[in-house]
Amino acid sequence: MRMQTPDEALAIAAANGDREAFAALLSRHYDMVFGLAFRLTGLRAEAEDLAQDICCALPAKLRSYRQEARFTTWLYRVTVNAAHDRRRRAATRTKATDGWGDWEINRRAGMAEEAEAQDWLAATMRQLAPELRDTVALTLGEGLSQKEAAEVLGVSEGTIAWRMSEVKKRLRQLARAEGML
Amino acid sequence: MTDDLQRLRAGLEALPQAPDPATRAAALARAMESFDRSQGTAETVRPKSDRPARAGFLTGAREMIQKLTTRPALAMTASFAVIAVALSVYPALKNGLPRPGGVAVPASETPAGTTATPTAPALTTTAPAEIAAPPAAPLAAEDSAATGPEPGVAAQERARLAPAAREEAESAAALADAAPLGEAATGPAPLQKLRATGTESLRTPPAPAPSTILQPAPDAFAPLPEANTEAFANATASAVKIAAEDPVSTFSIDSDTASWSILRSSLANGTLPPADAVRIEEMVNYFPYDYPAPKPGAAPFRAAVNLFRTPWNENTQLLRIGIQGAQPALDARPPLNLVFLIDTSGSMQDANKLPLLKQSFRLMLPELRPEDRIALVTYAGSAGTVLPPTPATDHGAILAALDRLDAGGSTAGAEGLALAYRVAEEMGGDGRISRILLATDGDFNVGIADPEDLKAFVANKRDSGAYLSILGFGRGNLDDATMQALAQNGNGTAAYIDTLSEAQKVLVDQLSGALFPIADDVKIQIEFNPAMVAEYRLIGYETRALAREDFNNDRVDAGEIGAGHQVTALYEVTPVGSPAVLNDPLRYGTGQRSLLPQPTDDLAWLKLRYKAPGESTSRLVETPVSAIAGEADDDARFAAAIAGMGQLLTGSTYLGNWGWDDVVALANDARGDDPFGYRAEAVRLMRLAESLSR
């Protein structure tokens, strides 16, 4: 029965202390949080840590959930913000750790082709400024529309459009640089 | 390139392998514990009833997510004892212990108002040295406020890497090998849109040997500059010329000051400016000097020429040409048609861009007169008129239109320019001066994006009589090269606004100079007397060099002088017989002899050409330059110090052992009156540059 209940109703119930509703909400969305965290950080361990932090903080966070946005949009925003905080904390520890950095140790042993694709992805993501990376993770990775991504990131739709054009510009530069090697 | 975008999409979509079931289960279990705990402590977390509930929820949640790293979360499940500790800690956190991380708001959302700075006293613009203006405001604080959200580390990285990118651009351009030397830098440039700009007739001085252009390919492993799309306009520094072989030097006047502000914003960010961003003439021209005013009835400007010993070389002399524009009575000034063309693309969102721009225009409004008219045109994805022509005194309507501006979308700069010129034409009227003020970070990425086409468009439009001035804002993708190109071709000036006090200098104190041209297409040509001068070199003005024959060609565009503007040019001159002569005499001689029947002891012959605004035929002013060196006054020594600073920043080879210590000492000694603290600020920046260059 719970499976039919919309996210929003579950979230309100959970905020009011419904334990089952909270459990249902979590199992429904853990994978999504983990997936976005992975795309934002590029590291499995980081993503797992981040997802767990978010889950643990969710009971408290849920109280600030007002049904102004869809629950998934809200949860995306929570995830992005948590990733930002983590990035910022990492930046104070060491300026080198900026996500998508320690790819090598994380690479799965596997087919060379796959490894190459992953290296390209890591190298590309590393070259993007954090806000572009977030935008790409949401639009390309999660398949959000520019409008949805704008809502998650709290910026205007035009800003997302501009960022995507920046990403294209950057990809062009990278491709050209690759060509020069 | 959509291929790469698809590739990125595919990579990202495929990225997360399914979460590890054990990790997932553990996370869910911990979350449930957290849920139970939150139920149990719901009442005790807010022991004070006077605390607003909503604030408690929000800040509490934020604090929690910030404090809650994995380590404590893991520890929580390790034992009940630790859970008990956690229970007592969270309430304490909620009750307002200091938060280290700050609120999780992206930096770009910082409210615009935070850059607000004290406005300096308004000044009477009737003062003779009208450039001598603004604020003794606390510059250090403003700089740091206006540097905005760009992280210092990234900025540093960019600045460090920029030269490498330029090398790449240059080598690529050189390889393309299709263009003559002078255009080599305008070729396709891969990373930064590096162009030599200048007027259409720009010629790179013939001196640099091909070897300096054909640089070795950059280190293949050098990292790319991160997302930096800034492009700067500059050309190779003028080399020493031999007066006997090449006695004539020609250049266009340049009253821009953008380079100094860009340099200041870089230094305030803790990085040395990219060498390409350093244009020495703009640095020197930033500062007010005490030049004699032109006599009534004579040319609209007056050139003062001085010769004095070079601070960095006791065997050479500096020839300073100081031009003072007339300051017409302000009451008699013609009414203005102002079209603000405002870039509202997504890249303008930062606090030091659109918000600073709005504040800057607010400062400017009270300087305008009831008969002046203002229109507001914006462009982002598309261009539109936000405010139809409105009398400048209708502050309410103008400010309301400004407030409505919001950043978003891509940048259709060309469309915006076309609309702005159309509006300016519609506003026209007898005796009115039309000027478009383009405020942008220079990122034109929709429509005509090729700067050459934009230049051609603007050059075509300038015949309509509308002037085009550029105000640059923000860093990150500042396209200084395009801005320079547009201003130079649009009969206007380019200024870069990094702080509110710079906005005051440009838009309030020097407004009449920025808006009222007194002489158009001003060119300088100087012929050195080989009997007196062995070698000479022009310091700065690389992007303004003209061919010798362009001087008399009225169809060749050049720079403007605004009301009260001051323009300074410096030559380093090596007298005949000086031990500082760099070139050996030719063994077989040059065979050239002076055409003058009698040899003279003039140092040089100085010629200036200008057009009165609106005229198409130029007038000529000429004067001999005496070879007798005099004492350098404070102005001259300060200008020399700024030129020295510029040369140190560009890595000039002509300074010998003269270094930052000497620059700072010279500038400090030559500060003179300095009522507005510009020179004190310059000394401060010199010290900063000295530390950064170590």
UniProtKB/TrEMBL annotation, chain B:
Pfam (any one): VWA_2
Superkingdom of origin organism: Bacteria
Region annotation (Disordered) ranges: 34-53, 101-121, 135-175, 200-222
Residue ranges, compositional bias (Low complexity): 106-121, 135-147
Keywords: Membrane, Transmembrane, Transmembrane helix
Keyword Signal assigned: no
InterPro entries reported in the protein's UniProt record: CLCR, Uncharacterised_YfbK_N, VWF_A, vWFA_dom_sf, YfbK_C
Keyword Transmembrane helix: yes
Bias kind Basic and acidic residues: ranges: 157-169
Domain VWFA: from-to ranges: 337-515
Membrane spanning stretches: 73-93
PANTHER family found in the cross-reference section: CALCIUM-ACTIVATED CHLORIDE CHANNEL REGULATOR, ZINC FINGER (C3HC4-TYPE RING FINGER) FAMILY PROTEIN
Protein name per Swiss-Prot or TrEMBL: VWA domain-containing protein
Taxon lineage: Bacteria, Pseudomonadati, Pseudomonadota, Alphaproteobacteria, Rhodobacterales
